[in-house]
Amino acid sequence: MYIIAIAWLYVTVLMAATEKTVIAGIFTFIFYGLLPCAILLWVLGVKHRRFKQAAKLNDETLLEDTVGEPDGANPKANE
Question: Which of 2, 34, 43, 67 is deepest in the core (most CB within 10 A)?
Answer without folding.
Answer: 34
